[in-house]
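Sat 14:20. Reprocessing the chain from the morning session after the first attempt stalled halfway. Input below, unchanged.
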Amino acid sequence: MRASDEEPFMPGQHPDLHPLYAQHLMTLQRNATAALERAGCDHLVIAAGQPAMQFLDDRPYPFAVNPHFKHWLPVTNAPGSWLVHTPGERPRLIYLQPRDYWHVVPEAPAGYWVEHFDITIIREPAEARAHLPADATRCAVIGEANAAIDGFVPDNPQAVLDHLHWHRAYKTEYELAMMRVASRIGVRAHRAAEYAFRSGASEFDIHMAYLAAARQTDNELPYGNIIALNEHGAILHYTDLAHAPPAISHSFLIDAGASFHGYASDITRTHAARGVHRASAFQSLVDAVDEAQQRLAAGVVAGQSYPELHLRAHLALAAILREHGFIRCTPESALESGISRAFFPHGLGHPIGLQVHDVAGFQASEAGGTIPRPAGHPYLRMTRTLEPGMVVTIEPGIYFIDMLLAELRATAAGADVDWGQVEEFRRFGGIRIEDDVVCTDGAPENLTRDAFSQLA
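Finished this time. Tokens:
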């Protein structure tokens, strides 16, 4: 954690993190103890990780901390550090502060969380071994292989991972507080990006405006920004960032988030340019997708099957396609024939938290197992039933992807598509609207819409 990570909370919304974190840590300790019992181990040992070196070079790739490590404490840049949980004892942090004049040394541990740990400072990575449990065979060691030191090798027991991943789906109040801040940082940067787009900026310059507003580097963001003008919006993971602006800007799709204390936000918005050919028609299509997205987000309620919500999204988007003259068949027929998948080829969303695509989206129980995706929907990233504490993204979209539309046109179902109307909209690329939504005991909490309202 860096000093600049201390993002201010909104006035009147500054929670006391001490009790929130204390309760969060108790939850992690309880879940970790149960996971150890399941696996027959005595200690949970988590490696923060080590930087990986680039092939045939002396430069490391950007460091990404083990998500299990940052689940316990808001430290995201302390490679070579370790965390040990032993049931009935205070958790131990073995914190590497190397003697180094080539690189910035991680700051000394400080903040609302340190009082809960026994902290040992080490100066060399190998020193950690003396402070880890003596018998490595009695430990569940979570981490990447390059974190291994002197017989302490990450083994990542599946029984432990299954249990921990299952329970990571249920966010604590502390975690939700972190995600609310991540949402506000992301929204602040989205507003700056839209302003840059309206000013005629290139994709690269829009991206730079986003980074400046978020006050985060590319490596600090939870994922690579998707900054897509015009037809680039039809490339779902477009990250090329053209340096020159297009001759005419028709549309802007931005899928970009932010990080706070290890937690992610994931936000997508689509904007129509003003005063260009068919701009008002595209704006009407954006508005229709936005309305459908809000209805789907309102469906993030306890007991709702996420795959069923995904299929509901297909019907809603097919209805929009019919209303706007792209298809002639019913929404039900469009779903059955595969027409809707050509225009909406990805899943409705995914779990989000410590990772943008968070774990256990398909898991059947805390003991593991897999809930399969619905037939014909291979890219859906969650198949569980929603429960209080889960946070998911809701991101329906309509796209004009040449490859998929060519495949559709070659089928019998292609006769139900108005290809002239499709051709008119290819220049806009596509539409995606994405919010991060919390399932509660009652109405869902939309982290993204709340942040936009607060920063209006």
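The first helix runs from residue 17 to 39.
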